Amino acid sequence: MTYPLLPDLLPLIIPPGLAVPDGYAEGSRRAWNTAEDKVTALVRRHPDRFPLYTSGGRWQLDGEAWTNWCEGFLGGQLWLLAARTGRPELRVLAEHYSLLLKGREHDREVHDLGFLFWPTWRRWHEATGRPELGETVVQAGRTMAMRFNPEGRYLRSFLAPDSLFIDIMMNVGIVFHAARRTGDQDLARIAYVHCLTTRRTLIRGDGSASHEGIFDLGTGAFLRQSTQQGYRDDGSWARGQGWAIHGFGTAYRYTGDRRFLRTAQDCADFYVERTGAALIPPNDWEEPDPALPVESSAAAIAAGGLWQLAGLVGDEARARGYAEYALRILTRLCDPRFLSHGDPEWEGVLRHGSYHQAKGLGVDESVMWGDYWFLDALDAVDRHLTGI
After folding, report:
1. Which residue positions in the chain have pLDDT lower than 50?
2. What is the reported pLDDT for 372?
3. What is the mean pLDDT of the chain?
4. H helical segments located in 276-367
5. Distance, CA of 228 to CA of 233 (rounded, Å)
6. Phi and psi torsions of 351, nearest 5°
7. Helix, strand or coil, per DSSP, at residue 312
8. What is the pTM of this model?
């Protein structure tokens, strides 16, 4: 049996005539300048370190990590900044911080190899075409596929063999990539089936996403939804919702399976309906009187996912709605409440993010993935608006 895998990623076709919010262009310029200042300061003060989150605005070098998943986001920011500015010293740093990950392409302890190698070695390979760089990305995809549970038909989380995380939808793309680069149908099967299982077990009828699914290891039967990050097991954790929007859109780009497109749309519609004019969600929409009323990293991820989705749906009105909502999110994140522009004491780019509210880690702080996905979304939008 063969599994759907397109020879090339489906292109993004953003509808014309978008209503770009007043202040977006200035906000984007301010955000890139802020990121350049903050990221270069970080690598100068703390060379070869990979902090995850700040405490009181200062990067915590030895804070509890829970799992080893964020090392690609600093290098990813450096690649984006090097491309944006053309500064050769930033390109040198981007290569250096990518090289520091060498060997992790064989790491079988994490489910986050996409987070490690997609922002770094994949960008490096695309910038140079050097085959050995591409082979490292493919190897990361092969290693990621080793997490496959054949009975449950899912890629297991780092936490336990019976555990499936929605986060893995943002990492399964590297398995699709490896399958497309090599023609390996087993890799294509693993990635495709994982997405189907996640769609069936973690995405609810209203489009909300559960953080975790628990399976019977003997039979592979799905048992229940759970959460490690949300308010409760039946809650709606906002960062996970962003992973779902982005991840299912990417699965559609690789496969052309419209079920994944519909799922991405359902997840996007839930985000928009529940967040509305606020644009920035709480940590979990179901939490009454939330301790953290806004979670900027979830918004940054969702903005990128919505922008991608706008380029994939065929209905122009729906596409415009997604694109303009993404633009509104990014414009809001560029305002002084969230962007640390002009504050030399705050070391991250985006304020009001959260790592792990239940564990009390990096709550109402800057988080490395939030800064990366913010720049990644800005880069996609800016390239479209400038015609690059």
Report:
1. none
2. 98
3. 97
4. 296-310, 316-333
5. 8
6. -80, 170
7. coil
8. 0.97
